[in-house]
Specification:
Elements: E1 4-9, H1 14-27, E2 29-37, H2 47-54, E3 58-63, H3 65-78, H4 90-109, E4 113-115, H5 124-135, E5 140-142, H6 153-162, E6 176-180, E7 183-187, E8 217-224, E9 227-231, E10 234-235, H7 238-251, E11 256-262, E12 268-274, H8 276-292, H9 295-313, H10 320-332, E13 338-345, E14 348-355, H11 363-366, H12 378-386, H13 388-397
Parallel strand pairs: 1-2, 1-4, 2-3, 4-5
Antiparallel strand pairs: 6-7, 7-12, 8-9, 8-13, 9-10, 11-12, 13-14
Helix pairs in contact: 1-6, 3-4, 4-5, 7-8, 9-10
The structure holds arginine.
Length: about 400
């Protein structure tokens, strides 16, 4: 009988490194590792060699940055999807793409099992597995961290040492970090106490706003149909644009978030995020929508944004509802073309100007000068009819002649 083969979602960190050897022994299987490069700076170097040294028969590393931004991040940006009103969801957007990568590699390698290194209490196990189920329902998913014998990182390190698995010799980072181009998530260590404010070393890429430059940075972002395409009048690829904004924002202390959030499994957790590019682009994109979308679409889209954010966070990227709501969002983005000028300064973002050929802002209607063309008298009839239900309620509640307030 042919030897079993398993495709492992491999990051190069301790968990997935230990996992390669552990799966190989436990299932007497050949291990193929698949690593998706989504812009993580820290762990990608030497990841292929590391996987092979750890015992994989084949190590695949795929640069998925452009696909990540254009097919995944842009959808979330156009939707203004911020989980619980704040988290731009770098990690949550990356998982469905990594699930797709696992499925693609599994098909290519002709295997029937894939494995991931997510713990049994997080969101990522849900995103990986629901993603795989939605794309390849017959694939078996193995989640060793939910069942294996190791109860701590020390025990994993011990196992790694015993089996000559290369792990970083540097002083152990007390945090659990997940990183891609759109943002970084940092948890564990002292951050587990929500009464403690994050120490300086919790931040991986952003400068403390107090130590950021004393003069502001001015940037102009150009959008076409809801997608950012230009930075300071220069057309850039998605990867270039987001990388430049990440580096600039980080230098100005922009994009730090310290959030308590509700996980899919019901646990409240505390996480630090650094997402300079995401926060800058969401700010600019929303500004443009304020200028261009009509009132009803703008208001309706706010509800859709919230729903889309929940679907992404909850691992339902490949669900029919997500697809349908994205079609709605795309229709709203038809005219979201224009420019937004921003000022970055000591961790803040200020909008300086916005412009679009599709702007619905009409100065003659808005002005309080003699240029005003708005028909003030028509408001009289409008308000009488508009307020009629409430006037009727008040009259029924209060039939006596004297006026009573409240
Ligand atoms: N809380 C974030 C999410 O669910 C990030 C999860 C991973 N965080 C980490 N520090 N490894 O999307």
């Amino acid at each position: 009988m042919a030897k079993r083969k398993i495709v492992v979602a491999y990051s190069g960190g301790l968990d997935t490194s230990v996992m390669v050897k552990w799966l190989k022994d436990k299932y007497d299987a050949d291990i193929v590792t698949a690593t998706g490069f989504l812009g993580q700076v820290k762990e990608i170097e030497g990841v292929k060699e590391k996987a092979l040294k750890t015992g994989a028969v084949k190590a695949i590393v795929l640069d998925l940055r452009e696909e990540f931004l254009t097919n995944y991040v842009w959808k979330a940006l156009k939707a203004s999807a911020l989980y619980e009103g704040a988290y731009p969801m770098a990690c949550a957007i990356g998982r469905p793409l990594l699930a797709k990568m696992l499925v693609d590699v599994a098909i290519e390698e002709g295997v029937d099992s894939v494995a991931h290194g997510c713990t049994g209490k997080g969101n990522d196990q849900v995103r990986f597995e629901v993603g795989v189920q939605s794309l390849a329902p017959r694939l078996d998913v193995i989640a060793p961290l939910r069942t294996w014998e190791f109860k701590s990182r020390e025990e994993e390190m011990e196992y790694a040492r015993k089996h000559n698995i290369p792990v970083k010799a540097t002083k152990e980072n007390p945090y659990s970090i997940d990183e891609n181009l759109w943002g970084i998530a940092v948890e564990c260590g002292v951050l587990e106490d929500p009464t403690v404010s994050p120490p300086d070393d919790a931040y991986q890429i952003t400068v403390d706003p107090k130590n950021s430059p004393d003069t502001p940075a001015l940037i102009t972002i150009g959008f076409e149909k809801g997608i950012p395409i230009c930075l300071n009048e220069i057309e850039l690829s998605a990867v270039e644009l987001v990388s430049q904004l990440r580096d600039l924002g980080a230098a100005y202390g922009v994009g730090r978030l310290d959030l308590i959030e509700n996980r899919v499994v019901g646990i409240k957790s505390r996480e630090i995020y650094e997402a300079p590019a995401a926060v800058i682009l969401h700010t600019a994109h929303s500004e443009l929508e304020r200028l261009i979308l009509d009132k009803e679409t703008f208001r309706y889209k706010q509800n859709v944004s919230n729903k889309i954010a929940n679907l992404i966070y909850d691992g339902l990227w490949y669900s029919p509802l997500f697809k349908s709501l994205c079609a709605f969002v795309d229709a709203t983005q038809e005219n979201i073309t224009g420019e937004v000028k921003l000022e970055l300064y000591k961790g803040t973002i200020k909008t300086l100007s916005r412009s679009s050929v599709y702007s619905l802002y009409n100065k003659n209607l808005a002005t309080y000068t003699v240029e005003d063309t708005f028909d003030h008298k028509s408001s009289d009839g409008f308000i009488k009819i508009y307020g009629l239900p409430y006037k009727t309620i008040a009259l029924v509640k209060n039939p006596a002649k004297e006026e009573v307030t409240v």
